[in-house]
Design brief:
The complex is a heterotrimer of chains A (about 325), B (about 250) and C (about 550). Chain A has about 325 residues and is of the alpha+beta class. Chain A has helices at about 1-35, 50-75, 185-190, 200-210, 210-215, 245-255, 280-290; strands at about 85-90, 95-100, 105, 110-115, 115-125, 130-135, 140, 150-155, 160-165, 175-180, 235, 240-245. Chain B has two domains: about 1-35, no CATH class; about 35-240, Four Helix Bundle (Hemerythrin (Met), subunit A) (Up-down Bundle). In chain B, strand 1 (about 160) and strand 2 form a beta hairpin. In chain B, helix 1 (about 35-70) packs antiparallel against helix 5, helix 1 packs parallel to helix 6 and helix 3 (about 85-110) packs antiparallel against helix 6. Classes of the chains: A alpha+beta (about 325), B mainly alpha (about 250), C mainly alpha (about 550).
Chain lengths: ~325, ~250, ~550
């Protein structure tokens, strides 16, 4: 991807260089040729509509090539492949906290294996930051209150600068680090070195300790929707809208449950805003994602909208 | 004392070659204009442009309102249901009537009826103050019901959707009230300025400054008042009437 | 083909004439003036003052960046320094400079009017500017603000503990100065043109100021309300941009950039108008494609309102929004390119002088071209993702702001100096300064393009050592640039006392109504209202200075 960006840049440099040289030379030549001298008078020329149209249309066409090429690259940059390995990033003043799915935690460093698609799911704990890796030619602002994503595939092992690129206060310029790209074996070794549990296991634990399992059951119809297989599927809401259950949806459902009520359910879920930290949210989101495949031993019962809003059938009273 | 364009009080003298002489004219005509019509046209255009800037100014808040209402409809509706339609509608009627009195004031100025003009200007100010008093009562009620955003804000009510009670995130309703206070507060500030303007106009009218040949300030101030009225006419349904069918 | 006023070959007058400068010597006659020319001089003094304050902060920035470590000052101090540099330069220099100094002075003269439509509002504009400036100075002296001139939320609302509300108030008040100036210009240009002066006979400087004024009145109120909302959030905890309350920090960015992008066209358009005047006079011919140049100013003003989110490509806006804004951003490039081509074409078969104003015009064409082309690079999203928020952007906007706006302003100041003051500046020193500015400027800012592409982010107090060489080059250039700016400051002031006295109304033999009245003009501009029966830039009807002064040096 970096190569493509550079190729586009070189194209733009060439066109700009050409235009600059053209203008500079024209001005220079004309200024010398028509410098003021005795006996020679300026010739009044009104203009030429044809010329105006030409030098409007041609630059516009050239600019369109800039636009299209740039847009194509951008589209690719904003469309992560489905098989990308996910890594969670939490930015705060003034450091980057990274959590791998396997549970590895890092501060200001991100270890990744070479040749693998990596998708970063990022949020901020406080102000707006920006995750910038010049070597990859990639940057994405990291905002409080929502997730933004950035994906890449490193092609060469090495250490690459990571900068914060959105002014965020005193240590904005000190909030840097490295992306460490490793050969697969080295990476596996590095991964094995950490004692922490995979992110989704932490999530599963939280799911239980925070009481989520009380209503979101997998065996029988609970007071809340069954979350098996819900991730990345369409969800029909009470007000008739259909949304896709992505990371932002899961996150919002935890922090602001009444925003989107699933069709057929009552708005009884309490909010967990202030109760879960960003890292815990990431773990819970990871856990819900992992439920795309039903855990072994469950009946695989899908969420059923209840017949009447008042008393759902077969519900165990809690 | 009139603050005339000139040179800070120095006698107006153009150059040694030419002394400025001119025929007698309405003292309101300023010297840099060719004639009264040009001055009137200029003043009029100037006021219309100023009104455009006011529209852009309020526009920013309307934009914020638009975005947040789309995203948090239920919470906004719940907040809206806390507002008194009676008081809001009364205020709307008050302002519309005040716009009528403004039009009548301008007509009186045009016809040279000094006392009638002063009368309508004063009534306009009174109506404006009525609006502000009613607004004051509304604001007080908000304080009492803990609906002022900030540390004292409390909201546990729901959005009554035709009998169905939909719970809402109180933080989003707080956002509604933030916009409510920002928008009506900014509007009230403009009303206060308007009342001040019209009070000054009433005094000057009483002193006979406005004649059928020159009543531009009355006209232009009237335009200002009409704009502030129109802004309220947008504010009222947007803030008070979200999902209030019953 | 009327010529009015003073005859062409008048003998030099030694006795002082009554003009706007000596018509009243008291402080009161200056501070309570409603004469647009005196107000322009008041602005000239105050704007220059703020320019040097902003320049002082720039010097501090460049000194700190000589070394990779932060060693000259604390990080917090540095953050305040670049913020104040930006705020002062944007709001107290770039936005007002050409309209309030040159525009105020010249607009009534160029259209044959006695003053602007609302002279008292003009004076109010200046006082608002001063009040805003005093407030901002107070902020600077009592700790400054550290949010960057863009004061993004939530940092500016919930995290910084500097004087945001006061700084916001200063900008708010200065904004009204801008709005009233724009309002004044629009009404003046619409209603007070001399008889016979139709729209298609207007100088391009007037067209440029007209388009600028449209932006001023439509855009500035939006930043005003944005500042109000930020202040209200800070003071009363009304959460409008606070994500914890369901607010959206991106809404701030949209509202902010809705003004701040058109604002850059407020800065550049009047300067482009100046360049049109300089080239026409220095080449002694009508600008090629007059109609297209005039309309391109309006086109830039209109399109300028449609592109704001190109400052937000990586901010978290949707993919499709980004593409739309990228596409629209290219549309603004076309009218700008049209101007550059037309100016160049004007040189063809001209009779070109190399006086200082023209050198600045040449400099403008070159540097604005480079700045504009790099703007196209930024509009290309694939590139922007890499270089946004880096020194590439810093270099881009300095090319157009300094290489563009400031060059145009300096060129215009030199060109109209004899008209404004009745004195001539020293040509040799002026040419030297122009050269220093050009060389110093390129040395300062070209390395920053490279720094940006290599990945150095902006607003960095400390940086990785591999960026040092380019930073040192940039600072070296800055010192040359500083010299280039200090020299005119000195010789312009010198010229007021010792400069060659200009006795005739039209020392450049230029077209335009301002040249038909004395230098300096009398208080009410014209002894009798001109009646215009000729087209703009009728250089073929104006004998060149040399022919009018045969045998003179």
């Amino acid at each position: 991807m970096a190569g493509q960006v550079d190729a586009l840049y070189i194209y733009l440099l060439l066109v700009s260089g050409f235009m600059t040289a053209l203008i500079f030379l024209s001005v220079l030549v004309l200024a010398i040729k028509y410098r003021r001298s005795a006996g020679h008078h300026a010739k009044p020329i009104e203009g030429s509509t044809l010329l105006e149209i030409t030098w409007s249309i041609i630059p516009l066409m050239v600019m369109m090539t800039f636009f299209v090429w740039g847009a194509v690259i951008y589209f690719q940059e904003r469309t992560p492949p489905a098989d990308a390995t996910e890594v969670y990033v939490v930015a705060k003043q003034w450091m980057w906290k990274i959590e791998h799915m396997e549970g590895q935690r890092e501060i200001n460093e991100l270890h990744v294996p070479v040749g693998q698609n990596i998708k970063l799911i990022m949020t901020s704990q406080d102000v707006i930051h920006s995750f910038y890796v010049p070597a990859f030619r990639l940057k994405q602002d990291v905002l409080p209150g929502r997730y933004t994503t950035l994906w890449f595939k490193a092609t060469k092992p090495g250490r690459y600068h990571l900068f914060c690129a959105e002014y965020c206060g005193t240590q904005h310029s000190g909030m840097g680090g490295d992306i460490v790209v490793m050969e697969p074996q080295e990476y596996a070794q590095w991964m094995a070195g950490g004692p922490t549990a995979p992110l989704q296991d932490t999530g599963k634990q939280l799911f239980s300790t925070l009481g989520c399992a009380t209503c979101h059951r997998f065996d029988v119809q609970g007071r809340g929707p069954n979350l098996l297989g819900v991730y990345s599927k369409p969800v029909l809401l009470e007000d008739g809208r259909t949304v896709i259950a992505d990371e932002n949806y899961v996150r919002e459902s935890i922090l602001n449950p009444t925003a989107k009520i699933v069709n057929g359910f009552k708005p009884v879920m309490p909010t967990f805003q202030g109760i879960v930290s960003e890292e815990q949210l990431n773990a819970l989101v990871a856990y819900v994602k992992s439920l795309a495949q039903p855990p072994p031993g469950t009946a695989g019962l899908q969420s059923q909208p209840v017949a009447s809003p008042a008393q759902p059938q077969n519900m165990q009273v809690q | 004392m009139r603050f005339q364009p000139g040179n800070g009080g120095i006698p107006v003298q153009n150059s040694e070659a030419v002394t400025v002489e001119h025929e007698a004219h309405n003292p309101a005509l300023l010297h840099h204009f060719a004639d009264a019509q040009q001055q009137k046209n200029a003043a009029s255009l100037g006021m219309w442009l100023f009104l455009v800037t006011e529209i852009m100014f309020f526009g920013g808040m309307f934009c914020a309102y638009l975005v947040y209402r789309l995203n948090h409809f239920n919470a906004f509706a719940a907040g809206s249901q806390q507002l008194s339609i009676l008081l809001g509608a009364t205020n709307t009627a008050v302002l519309i009537i005040s716009s009528v009195t403004v039009v009548l004031a301008v007509k009186a100025a045009e016809a040279g009826k000094r006392k009638v003009l002063v009368g309508y200007l004063v009534v306009t100010v009174l109506l404006g103050m009525t609006f502000l008093v009613i607004k004051g009562f509304e604001y007080r009620e908000k304080f009492e019901k803990h609906l002022v955003p900030g540390p004292t804000f409390q909201f546990t009510d729901t959005f009554d959707d035709n009998g169905k009670q939909i719970p809402v995130n109180p933080k989003e309703t707080e956002l509604f009230f933030s916009l409510y206070f920002a928008m009506t507060g900014m509007h009230a500030l403009h009303m206060i300025i308007g009342c001040g303007l019209f009070s000054v106009l009433a005094i000057l009218a009483w002193k006979g400054h406005y004649t059928p040949g020159y009543y531009t300030p009355v006209e232009n101030a009237g335009l200002y008042w009409h704009l502030v009225d129109i802004i309220w006419i947008y504010l009222f349904p947007l803030l008070y009437l979200i999902s209030r069918h019953s | 083909m009327a010529t009015i006023g003073i005859p062409a070959n008048q003998a030099p007058v030694s006795a002082p004439k009554l003009n706007y400068l000596n018509n009243g010597h008291t402080l009161k006659s200056w501070l309570l003036t409603t004469d647009h020319k005196r107000i322009a001089i008041l602005y000239l003094i105050s704007v220059t003052f703020f320019f040097f304050i902003g320049g002082f902060f720039a010097m501090l920035i460049r000194l700190e960046l000589l070394t990779p470590q932060g060693d000259l000052m604390q990080a917090d101090t540095y953050n305040k320094v670049f913020t104040m540099h930006g705020m002062i330069m944007v709001f107290f220099f770039l936005i007002p400079v050409v309209p309030a100094v040159l525009g105020n002075f010249l607009v009534p003269l160029m259209i044959g009017a006695k003053d602007l439509a609302f002279p008292r509002i003009n004076l109010l504009s200046w006082y608002l500017y001063i009040v805003g400036g005093v407030l901002m100075s107070h902020v600077m002296l009592t700790g400054g603000v550290d949010t960057g001139w863009t004061f993004y939320t939530p940092f500016s609302t919930d995290y910084t503990n500097t004087k945001i509300v006061e700084a916001g108030l200063a900008v708010f008040i200065a904004g009204f100065s801008s709005i009233f100036t724009g309002l004044n210009f629009i009404v003046t240009i619409h209603r007070m043109r001399a008889p016979g002066l139709t729209w298609d006979r207007l100088p391009l400087f007037i067209w440029a100021n007209y388009a600028t004024s449209l932006i001023m009145i439509l855009g500035t109120p939006v930043v005003a309300i944005t500042i109000v909302l930020v202040a209200v959030e800070r003071l009363f905890h009304l959460g409008i941009f606070d994500p914890r309350l369901g607010g959206d920090p991106l809404l701030f960015q949209h509202l902010f950039w809705f003004y701040s992008h058109p604002a850059v066209y407020i800065m550049i358009l009047p300067s482009m108008g100046v360049v049109s005047e300089l080239i026409a006079c220095s080449a002694r011919k009508r600008i090629f494609g007059y109609k297209f140049v005039a309309l391109s100013s309006v086109a830039i003003a209109v399109f300028g309102f449609l592109v704001w989110a190109h400052h937000m490509f990586v901010a978290g806006i949707s993919l499709y929004a980004a593409m739309i804004f990228s596409f629209l951003s290219f549309s603004v490039g076309v009218p700008s390119a049209v101007k550059v081509f037309n100016w160049t074409a004007t040189l063809y078969k001209g009779s070109i002088s190399y006086a200082t104003p023209m050198l600045y015009a040449f400099g403008f064409i070159g540097l604005f071209t480079m700045g504009g082309l790099t703007g196209l690079m930024l509009a290309t999203i694939g590139i922007d993702v890499h270089v946004t928020d880096t020194y590439f952007v810093v270099a881009h906007f300095h090319y157009v702001m300094v290489g563009g706006v400031l060059m145009g302003y300096l060129g215009g100041l030199h060109f109209w100096w004899p008209k404004m003051t009745g004195r001539m500046y020293p040509e040799a020193w002026a040419k030297l300064s122009a050269l220093l500015v050009f060389v110093g400027f390129n040395l300062t800012f070209f390395p920053q393009f490279i720094l940006g592409y290599l990945g150095m982010p902006r607003r960095y107090w400390q940086y990785p050592p591999e960026f040092q060489t380019l930073n040192v080059m940039s600072t070296a250039g800055a010192s040359i640039l500083a010299a280039g700016y200090l020299l005119p400051m000195i010789y312009f002031v010198w010229s007021l006392r010792y400069g060659k006295i200009v006795t005739e109304p039209n020392p450049w033999a230029a077209a335009g109504l301002e040249w038909k009245t004395s230098s300096p003009p009398p208080t009410f501009n014209f002894d009798e209202t001109p009646v215009v029966t000729w087209e703009a830039y009728n250089y073929d009807e104006i004998p060149a200075w040399e022919r009018r002064h045969p045998g003179a040096k």
